[in-house]
Design goal:
about 475 residues, alpha/beta, nine-stranded parallel β-sheet, two-stranded antiparallel sheet, 14 helices, 13 strands, about 10% strand, disordered N terminus
């Protein structure tokens, strides 16, 4: 090989060796950097896992529903699921119908008393036990009751046949066609549905109400369009207690209601439910804590019969017995105030959310009624409501409709109530959907030929928010009254 070529060869080899050494150095640095990054990544993942472990409760085992305690609805469903999975006795070949199973599961699962949850106390407005709200547990659907109850309300005929002939007849056909002018956010629900009861309690608590006035019929009895609901009372009490609410009773005009049956039924209620922590007792001016009963359509019974029960000298007197209570009569006409006083009632309420419909429901009469009550040692409990419309069940009753005016009607009623400085304000209602007095959440809905009313331009919870606003206003003004 010529010397020149040999020199060129060795020069080429030296260059190749330098390139190889350089490439090797670069690869080594790359691997070292990759290892360092990988190690840091592993340390990062480990630190996250340790942090999550410190957040997880010590009592939580693998697969526990951590975090569901912040969501009461999901928490309750988890309890139901766990109860089913852990049940030691499985009954094979059960011949009970599906409807009965659903009813029993719902009722039995809800009977466990649930203490108030601290998280709820932080999130929700404090309850105002001087704000009482009328509540109805008479609704049913096929899932929980085997059929629709109350949502399929009949169209009630006018008492004058000539007028009645001008209006439609028949029944509503849920779930799209219900006996109401508004449509509930929860749909055509069942009052036995645990998730519905929970949602209702949460809504009432968010509105800063404090006492649920539960529509009540004696065991085995109901209104003409419903079914007995007394078996739901323990469940409602339990859920009310969870939300730090209290429950009192709205005694409906059941068949043969008189002094004797009232004594028996008041005794039944106090004996069966009086020991529950959610059972409402009102502190009187003398320092006593007594149950309270609202008596709907009390004027149907003559004062002499009521006096047998409600006066100290009455033949069936309940006074100064273990079943003594505060009994609040419904005032419709002006003359009823004298009958209420003679009967021995402890106060009066006005119920109807229709300003001008009756003497009692007319705001401008509240001052004179309050003055009468004050002079006769009676409680005056005005009833406020967001509006009134019942043409879905009484199509001939347009003249009694009271438009909500986007909440202004409701606020006007509250303002009128506060002017008379009442000890208690009652709200008609949480969920009397047939008469359109509900403050429960409603949503827009259009089905076929039916277009439901709604709360627009406001949100579905607007009347809950307005109630909460006036509850706070009442509290502040009441402090000034007592100064």
């Amino acid at each position: 090989m010529p010397a020149a070529n040999l020199q060129a060869f060795w020069l080429s080899c030296g260059q190749n060796t330098s390139v190889w050494i350089l490439n090797y150095d670069i690869m080594a640095r790359f691997r070292r950097r990759t290892c360092i990054i990988l190690l840091l990544f592993i340390l990062f993942i480990c630190s996250i896992m340790m942090a999550l472990k410190t957040l997880r409760p010590d009592r939580a085992g693998f697969g526990d529903p951590f975090g569901l305690g912040l969501l009461p609805e999901l928490q309750q469903r988890t309890v139901l699921l766990d109860n089913k999975q852990n049940s030691p006795h499985r009954i094979q070949g059960d011949t009970v119908t599906r409807v009965s199973n659903l009813h029993n599961i719902a009722v039995n699962a809800m009977k466990a008393s649930m203490p108030p949850v601290n998280k709820l106390e932080e999130e929700l407005s404090s309850p105002n036990y001087n704000f009482h709200i009328f509540y109805y547990s008479w609704f049913g659907n096929p899932q929980f009751d085997g059929k629709y109850i109350h949502w399929n309300h009949p169209l009630l005929p006018h008492w004058d046949p000539k007028i009645a002939n001008n209006y439609p007849k028949g029944r509503h056909n849920p779930p799209e066609d219900i006996g109401a002018n508004f449509y509930p956010e929860l749909g055509s629900y069942s009052s036995k549905d645990p998730s519905v009861i929970e949602a209702h309690m949460k809504q009432m608590r968010s509105a800063s109400t404090g006492v649920i006035v539960l529509s009540w019929y004696p065991p085995g009895m109901a209104d003409e369009n419903g079914e007995p609901t007394d078996d739901l009372v323990p469940v409602i009490l339990d859920y009310a207690h969870k939300y730090n609410l209290k429950v009192t009773f709205h005694i409906e005009p059941y068949k043969d209601r008189d002094d004797r049956s009232m004594y028996h039924n008041v005794k039944y209620i106090i004996d069966k439910y009086g020991g529950h922590p959610a059972f409402y007792r009102h502190k009187t001016s003398t320092g006593r804590f007594l149950p309270m009963f609202y008596v709907y359509d009390s004027y149907v019974t003559i004062p002499e019969i009521w006096a047998n029960l409600l006066t100290v000298s009455g033949s069936q007197t309940i006074r100064n017995t273990p079943y003594d209570a505060l009994f609040i009569a419904l005032l419709v006409e002006e003359r009823h105030k004298h009958d209420i006083h003679r009967s021995g009632f402890d106060g009066m309420y006005t119920y109807f959310a229709t300003n001008g419909f009756s003497y009692g429901s007319s705001h401008h009469n509240w001052a004179s009624l309050k003055a009468f009550c004050d002079s006769n040692n009676l409680m005056f409990i005005p009833s406020v409501g967001p509006g009134y419309i019942d043409t879905s069940i009484r199509p001939w009753n347009n003249h009694n409709t009271r438009n909500r005016v986007n909440g202004k009607y409701y606020e006007t009623a509250f303002s009128a109530a506060l002017l008379v400085r009442p000890e208690i304000i009652s709200i008609t209602s949480f969920n009397e959907w047939h008469e359109g007095t509900q403050i429960e959440k409603a949503v827009p809905k259009r089905t076929g030929q039916v277009v439901y009313l709604d709360y627009k331009p406001h949100k579905p919870n607007v009347y809950l928010e307005l109630t909460q606003k006036w509850s706070e206003k009442y509290r502040k003004e009441q402090e000034q009254w007592l100064m």
